[in-house]
Amino acid sequence: MAELNALSTEDRVAIDRVFERLSGRTHYEVLAVAPDSSWEAITQAVRDLRKRMDVTRFVGVPTEEYSRRVELVLRALDQAVEVLGDPVRRFLYDQQLRRGEGRREETPPPLRPAVTPVPRRPSGAPPRVEPASQAPDAVAPPLVVESPLVVPAPLRKDPPAGSVGSSAPGPRSSSSRPSMIPPPLGGGGRLGSVAPIPMLAAPSAERRDLDALLVEVERIAVSVQFCIAQVLDPQAARVSALQNAGQALADTRSALASIQARRDEEAGRWHEATANWLRATRARPRDAVLLARLAECHHRMGDLQAADDAARRALAVDTGCEAAKAVLTALSRR
Q: pLDDT tens, 227-266?
């Protein structure tokens, strides 16, 4: 009776109604808005749901079960804002929904697992004879059971019991139960050795840069969808979400080319660096900094006319660009 009186019926019904929309639903269904809703309508729906899930406005104190439900609902709202608030991510998410994907895979776990106990072992398995072996049910069965997941015994050739090799110090598995863990491929120490594992080493700076490039490349996937939308509907470019997606695509292309251009400059590959700075300026033709870097590369390559054109374009965008002025000053001395 105390549990029922902890929270009002109205609040419990409101929480249950939103909680039922979490499992296997889209972000739009969680917010109860149409897929073509504007960002203002989405933010209004989020504000209303957050206001309804505010524990300070409840009549009574929620139980542990309903407190967890409120937490899951608020977490789902954060995920919806994160996806739908980014125009690029929302555009890709809508494409996933058209393909039948994009629904929430996270199913809230049961809040009262004791109501439906899970059997300790499969119904077809024979009962264990040893009473002490009932606790570690998660341990793999002995090798006598035929299973395709069991590693064959020849992967680890333990000496038989009673031989000279069986008296080696350290923990050893029983001879009647071969180890399920194969030895390391590189011939290194077994589990528990202090030797470092190369795969777990900290990533280098070059690896981190490569990961950053891969993240940027993934975002470029929106370009194909954006172009298809424009071909199918010439008015698609006027949609605010697509405009933002197109701008984000241009920024992504420019950032990707700029990162690669700097890496080429550090390695002394000036031809490649010039080509990448040119790609960056094509994505962002009104960026004075990128135009100045392109002018510097043309100047290093000896292409004076191209360097002069790029520097003047940079000054036309920003009259105070010092890098472009430096390139023009160097060209005037020749």
A: 655 555 566 555 565 566 667 777 777 888 888 888 888 8
**284 found inside a domain:** yes
Pair 251, 278: CB distance under 8 Å: no
pLDDT in tens, 133-158: 444 444 444 444 444 444 444 444 45
**Distance between CA 277 and CA 306 in Å, rounded?**
13
Q: The CATH number of the domain where 259 resides is what? A: 1.25.40.10
| Dihedral pair phi/psi, residue 169, rounded to 5° | -70, 165
Q: Which of 98, 130, 150 is the last residue of a domain?
A: 98
The total number of structural domains that make up the chain: 2
184 close to 198: Cβ distance less than 8 angstroms: no
Q: CA Rg, the chain, in Å? A: 32
Q: Give the SS3 label for residue 37.
A: coil
Token pair of 297 as six digits? 């590369």
Q: Which among 8, 21, 6 has a CA at the least distance from the CA of 69?
A: 21
Band the pLDDT of 163: cuts 50, 70, 90: very low
CA distance 215 to 256: 10
Domain that holds residue 313: 212-332
Alpha-helical runs (H) found in the chain: 9-19, 27-31, 39-52, 64-84, 87-98, 205-219, 222-232, 240-266, 270-283, 288-301, 304-317, 322-332
pLDDT higher than threshold 60 for residue 71: yes
Alpha carbon of 127 to those of 133, 134, 219: distances in Å? 11, 10, 54
| Segment among 159-163, 274-278, 308-312 with least mean pLDDT | 159-163
Q: From 214, 216, 212, 228, select the one nearest 91 (Cα to Cα).
A: 228
Cα angle 74, 79, 84; round to 5:
125
pLDDT digits (tens, 9 = 90+) for 214-235: 666 666 656 555 665 555 556 6
